[in-house]
UniProtKB/TrEMBL annotation:
Name of this protein: DUF2007 domain-containing protein
PROSITE patterns given in the database record: ZF_RANBP2_1
Domain (RanBP2-type) ranges: 86-105
Keywords, alphabetical: Metal-binding, Zinc, Zinc-finger
Pfam families: DUF2007
Organism name: Alginatibacterium sediminis
Gene Ontology molecular function terms on file: zinc ion binding
InterPro entries per UniProt: DUF2007 (IPR018551), Znf_RanBP2 (IPR001876)
Length: 114
């Protein structure tokens, strides 16, 4: 079942369940580079939606309904690449392979990914 939510006059659907908040943020960053808008529960909460059912408080990622297929394609790519995640040499945060800089401290990827 696809979960849908109405927010800001748009329909959002769950396209992925992230393992944790950091992964959700990584995916959102990668998708924004592709011009795709991504929301996850914390986004909704900080955006003032305020009345989400408890079940939504997993790390579910939402995209706009019309972007669903594209989002699924990107997730497939993401899952292929996730073994190539790299660790920031400055703050030790883990970053997705598609990132050229650390999401956390904005340090450039040193490029010594083995
Ligand atoms: Zn860093």
């Amino acid at each position: 079942m696809t979960k849908e939510i109405q927010w800001r006059s748009r329909t959002w659907v769950v396209f992925y369940r992230a393992g944790h908040q950091i992964e959700a943020q990584l995916i959102r960053g990668a998708f924004q580079q592709q011009g795709l808008e991504v929301m996850f529960p914390q986004s909704f909460l900080s955006g003032g939606l305020g009345e989400l059912p408890g079940a939504v408080l997993e790390q579910e990622l939402f995209c706009q309904k019309q972007d669903f297929q594209l989002a699924r394609n990107l997730i497939t790519e993401y899952e292929k690449k996730r073994q190539l995640d790299w660790y920031c040499s400055t703050c030790n945060e883990v970053n997705g392979s598609s990132f050229d800089w650390c999401w956390n401290c904005q340090s450039a990827h040193s490029g010594n990914n083995s």
